[in-house]
Specification:
By secondary structure, the chain is α/β, with parallel strands linked by helices. The protein folds into two domains: 4-108, no CATH class; 115-298, Rossmann fold (3-Layer(aba) Sandwich). The protein has eleven helices and seven strands. A seven-stranded mixed sheet has the order 3-2-1-4-5-7-6. Helix 1 packs antiparallel against helix 2 (19-28), helix 1 packs across helix 4 and helix 3 (30-48) runs antiparallel to helix 6 (96-112). The protein is globular and about 50 Å long. The protein binds S-adenosylmethionine. The site of S-adenosylmethionine (SAM) has 18 residues, from helix 6.
C-alpha cells in the first residue's frame, strides 16, 4: 500500500529542480504532511492505480511553472492580467485536460510549499478538531475534494458536502471519495459558490470551508455574507485566500490580509485566528506572494 513517499519519489524522478524543496518541507513537517499525504496516497492508488503518482508529479511541475510565469508577468505589468471569465471557465474549469493535473497540484502544495504548512496545521488543529459533535460541514470550491475527505477521516462523527463549479474537479473528488470509503458521509456536487442561497437553509452548517476560492471570484465580497448566512450559531469557518499571487485563474487581486478580513467582518464574522506566510521572492520584487488562512466565527 502506498504512502506519502510515493509522491516524493515520483517528483524526484520528474523534477530535480522542484523536488529538493518539497522533500525538505515534508521532512521538516513529517507528521502533519503525512496526515495529508498518507491517506491521499491510498485513495489515489485505489482510484487511479500506480500512475496516480506520476500524474500528480507532472501536474505539480506544470502548476509550479505556470505560477512562476504568471508571477513574472505580474511583476512587469504591476497588476493581475487574467483572461476573461468565459475564457477561464472554458480553458480551466470545464477542461478536464487542464483541471486534472491542476487538482493534483492544488492539494500537493499544502505539503510541499512552506507557505501552506500553517494552513494545514490550522485546518487540522483549529478547525476540524474544534468542530461541534456531529457537525454538518459545507466545503465551497472543494476541487479535488481532499480537504472534505480528510475532514471525514479525522472526524468520524461529521457529514460533509463539497461543491465546486468545475465538473472535472468534482469527478476527481467523486473518484477519490469512492476509494476512501467515506461516501456514506461525504458527497460532492457541481455548484457555483455564489449561487447557493436559494437551495440552502440559513444556518444549516456548523462548519464551512472556503479554501483558496475568493481570489477566483471577479467580485468576492458576496462570498462572505453567503458564508455568514449558512453558518449555524457557534459554528466555525476555515477561510483561506491568496494575496499578490498571480495565477491563470486568479482574477481578484488581494494585496493585504486586512482586505478579506474586512470583507468577513463587514458580513458579521470575526477572526479568532489568522496565519499568513510568504513565498520566497527575488530581492527586487514589487509583490510578495503569500496566502492567509483564518478561523472565522459569527460575531
Ligand atoms: C485553487 S483551487 C482550490 C481547491 C481547494 N479548495 C484547495 O484548497 O485545494 C480553486 C477551486 O475553485 C473552484 N472555483 C472557482 N470559482 C468557483 C465558484 N464560483 N464556485 C465554486 N467553485 C469555484 C475551481 O473550480 C477550483 O477547484
Amino acid at each position: 500500500m502506498k504512502n506519502a513517499e510515493a509522491f516524493l519519489v515520483a517528483l524526484e524522478r520528474r523534477s530535480k529542480l522542484l523536488a529538493p524543496r518539497a522533500i525538505a518541507t515534508f521532512a521538516a513537517n513529517r507528521e502533519l504532511c503525512s496526515w495529508l499525504l498518507d491517506p491521499l496516497a491510498r485513495w489515489a492508488e485505489a482510484a487511479y492505480g500506480e500512475k496516480a503518482f506520476e500524474d500528480a508529479a507532472l501536474g505539480y511541475v506544470k502548476y509550479c511553472l505556470g505560477v512562476a510565469q504568471a508571477q513574472a508577468i505580474y511583476e512587469r505589468a504591476g497588476r493581475y492580467t487574467p483572461e476573461s471569465m468565459p475564457e477561464i471557465t472554458s480553458g480551466v474549469y470545464e477542461d478536464a485536460g487542464y483541471m486534472i493535473p491542476y487538482m493534483w497540484a492544488a492539494i500537493l502544495i499544502y505539503a510541499f510549499w512552506p507557505s501552506m504548512i500553517s494552513h494545514l496545521a490550522l485546518f487540522r488543529h483549529e478547525f476540524l478538531r474544534q468542530l461541534p459533535a456531529d457537525a454538518a460541514v459545507l466545503e465551497l470550491a472543494c476541487g479535488h475534494g481532499v480537504l472534505s475527505l480528510l475532514a471525514a477521516e479525522e472526524r468520524p462523527d461529521i457529514r460533509v458536502t463539497g461543491l465546486d463549479i468545475s465538473a472535472p474537479g468534482v469527478a476527481v473528488a467523486n473518484r477519490l471519495c469512492t476509494a476512501s470509503g467515506h461516501s456514506g458521509r461525504v458527497r460532492f456536487g457541481v455548484a457555483d459558490a455564489l449561487q447557493l442561497d436559494k437551495a440552502q437553509q440559513p444556518g444549516a452548517y456548523q462548519g464551512i470551508i472556503s479554501a483558496m476560492l475568493a481570489e477566483h471570484l471577479p467580485t468576492p465580497a458576496p462570498l462572505f455574507p453567503a458564508i455568514a448566512r449558512q453558518l449555524a450559531p457557534g459554528g466555525l469557518v476555515f477561510f483561506s485566500v491568496a494575496l499578490e499571487s498571480a495565477q491563470r485563474d486568479h482574477v481578484f487581486e488581494f494585496h493585504t490580509e486586512s482586505e478579506p478580513l474586512r470583507m468577513a467582518e463587514e458580513s458579521g464574522l470575526r477572526a479568532s485566528r489568522l496565519v499568513s506566510d510568504a513565498s520566497a521572492v527575488a530581492a527586487k520584487s514589487k509583490f510578495l506572494p503569500r496566502s492567509t488562512a483564518m478561523i472565522l466565527r459569527a460575531r
